[in-house]
Amino acid sequence: MKILMFGRGMIASVYGWAFEKAGHQVEFYVRPGRAAQHGPEIELSIRDGREKGAEVSERWPVTLREELAPGHDFDLVLVSVNPDQLAGAVEFLTGRVGTATVLVFGNVWADPAEVVSSLPADQVVWGFPGAGGGFTGSRVSGGMLKNVFLGYVDGSNRGLRHEAVRDLFTGAGFSVSRVRDFRSWLWFHYILDAGMLTEVLAAGSVDAYLGSPEAVSGSVLLVREMVPLLKAKGGTPRIGAALMTYLPAGLVSFVLRKTLGGDNLAAFFFRQIERTGHLDRHLAGLYSRDVLAEARERGIRLPRLEAREPVFA
């Protein structure tokens, strides 16, 4: 398969590397002028969850391109960008996707179907990575888990294109979890990020956050407060929202602290995101800013999140 990774971010880099190792042809689209800035290789310093967290340290030569003509021959365009960049990426790709499948591989707070409405619906597949980390110069630190998620949003592809994407991941050694209501799944993941990252910013660091039962419990209470907004948007809360809503906050906090504070890949990735500078107010606060803005538009009070606004505004 010939694959174009849209952007040279952390997610695109680690999965692009895995796909090339599995025998696929991988290139990266970058903005004009960025190819020279990025250079011809990526320095990988990652842990690979497909191999039980095996450490990978290598220099990977990559192909960067600064144009995408409508007549290209890519089979797949993988789009994994920050939520506030997705609309711009879709606008650029409109009229340029050709016959390629477009895998939207990341988070979104707007209605997913509306964001990609200018793309051919039967060419769109939705997914979500299991990875974390960031770039420092040409070096990517972090890694990926074995599992990824694929799902459906309204008229998104459920046929051969979806199966081809699934086979791409499984053929590269990943396991795939399927989610039927991917819209609700994405929105819950968004409020979960908002709750956790707000308290990380308030605590000042990941270690300070994980070392404080009160801070982690605060995350749980923030997410609990946001669940009615998820419903107001048209999402259907499922098991994650139920756990956050009905289990004691202290119990959920204990589980989160054990998970993210232990010696495991999830904890390692969380710390690498911070160490590469990707937990600053601009990036980490994006989720809470989006959630609070929509709550205000809908007239839904989120007093706990409002009280935390100074840390992410």
What does this structure look like?
The structure is a single chain. Helices cover 46% and strands 20% of the residues. The chain has 313 residues and is an alpha/beta fold. The chain has 15 helices and 12 strands. Helix 6 (182-203) packs antiparallel against helix 8, helix 6 packs across helix 13 and helix 8 (213-232) crosses helix 10 (249-260). The protein is globular. The protein folds into 2 domains: 2-180, Rossmann fold; 184-312, no CATH class. The strands form 2 sheets. An 8-stranded mixed β-sheet has the order 5-2-1-6-7-8-11-12. A 4-stranded mixed β-sheet has the order 4-3-10-9, sandwiched between helices. It comes from Lentzea fradiae. Residues 3-127 form the Ketopantoate reductase N-terminal domain. Pfam families: ApbA. InterPro entries: KPR_N, NAD(P)-bd_dom_sf. This is 2-dehydropantoate 2-reductase.
Q: What labels describe this entry?
A:
alpha/beta; Rossmann fold; 2 domains; four-stranded mixed beta sheet; globular; 2-dehydropantoate 2-reductase; KPR_N; NAD(P)-bd_dom_sf
What's the gist of this structure?
The protein has 313 residues and is an alpha/beta fold. Helices cover 46% and strands 20% of the residues. It holds the Pfam family ApbA.
Secondary-structure topology with pairs:
Elements: E1 2-6, H1 10-21, E2 25-29, H2 34-38, E3 41-48, E4 54-61, E5 64-65, E6 76-79, H3 86-93, E7 101-105, H4 112-115, E8 124-128, E9 131-136, E10 139-144, E11 147-151, H5 160-171, E12 175-179, H6 182-203, H7 206-210, H8 213-232, H9 239-246, H10 249-260, H11 265-275, H12 281-284, H13 286-298, H14 303-307, H15 309-312
Parallel strand pairs: 1-2, 1-6, 2-5, 3-10, 6-7, 7-8, 11-12
Antiparallel strand pairs: 3-4, 8-11, 9-10
